[in-house]
Write a structure and sequence with these properties.
Layout lengths: L19 H32 L3 H7 L11 H9 L1 H32 L6 H13 L4 H10 L1
């Protein structure tokens, strides 16, 4: 890794001096990011706490972060029915088959497009590029907005 003598980016040998306002802005940024992270994690913690609470306790007292009437009945029902294992198997099969098919199609398309003698190389490249610019729902959304 080449070092530039004018600027060093290592934290221990930083040549850039931070002022008081820089520390304030960084502090505010850290607080905001921390609050956002807690707001993202909190619903998952409530779901986990609720999954270990009995159904009657939830009906009477509502959901809580820490389970009060601890039970594993929800997990016994999910695992005991056997449907979860079928769902996992289907998910794994779809993931493997979809990944292999997508990889094959992308590899074949990439090989064809890199060849200079491929007849429709520019048209297919433009089609791939043009469709990547727009999200999948843009055309139906446009039709919905213009028709209503």
């Amino acid at each position: 890794m080449a070092k530039n003598k004018d600027i060093e980016f290592e934290a221990s040998n930083s040549k850039i001096k931070l002022g008081a306002s820089d520390y304030v802005v960084r502090g505010i940024g850290y607080v905001l990011v921390t609050l956002y992270a807690v707001a993202c994690v909190f619903p998952f913690l409530i779901i986990i706490g609720t999954s270990f609470t009995s159904e009657s306790y939830i009906r009477n007292n509502g959901v809580q972060l820490i389970p009060r009437d601890f039970t594993l009945k929800a997990y016994e029902m999910v695992i005991g029915s056997g449907n979860i294992w079928k769902s996992y198997l289907l998910t794994i099969i779809l993931t493997v088959v979809g990944t292999v098919c997508g990889l094959l199609i992308i590899a074949m398309t990439g090989y064809a497009l890199q060849r200079k003698d491929f007849p429709f190389r520019n048209a297919i490249s433009f089609y791939i590029y043009f469709t990547s610019l727009f999200s999948a729902g843009l055309a139906p959304y446009y039709l919905l907005m213009t028709q209503t």
